Amino acid sequence: MMQSKLASLAVKGFLAFGLFLGALSFGFAASAQQATPSLPLLFDARERLARPDLSSLVRLRFLTSVDFPPFNFTDQNGKLSGFNVDLAREICSELEISDKCQIQAIPFADLKDALAASQGDAVIAGLAVTPELRRQFVFSRPYLMLPARFVRNLAVPLDGKTAAALSAHPVGVVRGTVHEAMLAAFFPAIKAQTFDTKDALLTALKDRKVDAAFADALQLSFWVSSPASAKCCALFDGPYLSEHFLGEGMTIMLRQKDSVLTAAIDHALATLSRNGRLQEIYLRYFPYGLY
């Protein structure tokens, strides 16, 4: 079963959930990020997407998983929660079909087959868009991009506030990842030092064996804001986006025959993006920001 590139880039499992909760409980004062992080608009403010008639819709069944915090997970009370879960509910509210809306969690590996078998109507779980999946399904417009970021050790003086200031410093990256390839392509002047795992990379950064690191902004955002970092570090410059290296972003996957429902979801996403409700959900789960 194909695994999601997006899921592999983000924090997963119980360890990740602990880091997520730890970052939130650590307090906003520990964050070196801006006080009110903003979510970039992925929809043209001038574009108006028609709202299809869904009066004949019997129900809208969203499928998700529980192993991709903070996007979809089971909270401490056993309740299905997360950015994607709240977004699915907001989509239903915007389309005025909340009474027809259902959200079900199933194993991540079963999502594609469950949608193909009409056991659900839409998958909102961080599945990466691939040519193979596009031959079988359709996707909504992206509603969130997961950028790459630098993180620096605050004890290291830098001559500048952009990535150019890192050219004379060792910068760590995880070996064999898209971020290693992206770092080489975007910043050829930077001398990369590779590590086998993300944990080894962050430990080296904390211990000043490297002066900065380049990785997934989601991981870095929670790490620098959690007790695990001991306030050693902060995000630096960026964000950096690349469809070639990082994919098309977070989308909703639907069956090819459901063109009307796809258009309705695009309409809802565009509306939520423009009226600020998508930003509200973003701040709920990413109070320190990704961008």
From TrEMBL:
From the Swiss-Prot or TrEMBL record, state where the protein is found: Periplasm
One Pfam match, given by its short name, reads SBP_bac_3
Q: Does the keyword Transcription apply?
A: no
For the Solute-binding protein family 3/N-terminal domain, which residue ranges apply? 59-289
InterPro entries documented for this protein: Solute-binding_3/MltF_N (IPR001638)
Q: Which domain of life is it from?
A: Bacteria
Q: Which UniProt keywords apply?
A: Signal
A GO cellular component term found in this entry reads: periplasmic space
What PANTHER family has UniProt attached to this entry? L-CYSTINE-BINDING PROTEIN TCYJ, MEMBRANE-BOUND LYTIC MUREIN TRANSGLYCOSYLASE F
Spell out the protein name for this chain: Transporter substrate-binding domain-containing protein
Organism whose genome encodes this protein: Rhizobium redzepovicii
